[in-house]
Specification:
By secondary structure, this protein is α+β, with helices and mostly antiparallel strands. It contains three helices and six strands; from the N terminus they run H-E-E-H-H-E-E-E-E. The longest helix has 15 residues. It starts with a helix and ends with a strand.
């Protein structure tokens, strides 16, 4: 049986060496007026954030992306972020803040998770 922990460590090491640190955010929105929730949500707020997450951004048209996700998903995004598996649950995040302050909306997330060990997060993002 393969040692998935070694694969996760290799992915983390390579992404950390060649990538940059990002902040991942989970957003929350409540009604703009709690007395009139039918008027819709207010501006989203940051419910939680995970800072200093290593990531590498690649163009969505490359061969790697086509092996992991469908062509339809790749056409919807501007970039694909390969994210190190520093913790579980990153697939529930909504936004990435890049080192230059640029905000990226997460369109989709694929998790490479053989058995019970996350090896890599592949995230499609748009501005």
């Amino acid at each position: 049986m393969a040692d998935h922990g070694k694969f996760a460590a290799l992915a983390t090491r390579l992404i950390t060496k060649n990538g940059r640190l990002i902040t991942m955010q989970r957003l929350s929105s409540t009604a703009a007026d709690p007395n009139k929730p039918w008027n819709g949500p207010g501006a989203p707020t940051v419910a939680s954030a995970v800072p200093n997450v290593p990531a590498v951004f690649v163009p969505p048209g490359g061969g790697l992306g086509r092996d992991i996700v469908t062509e339809d998903l790749l056409q919807r995004v501007e970039q694909v972020a390969l994210i190190a598996p520093l913790q579980e649950g990153l697939e529930t995040m909504h936004r990435i803040i890049d080192t230059d302050g640029q905000a990226w909306k997460i369109d989709w997330v694929q998790v490479l998770k053989p058995a019970d060990k996350t090896v890599l997060y592949v995230v499609g993002v748009t501005r």
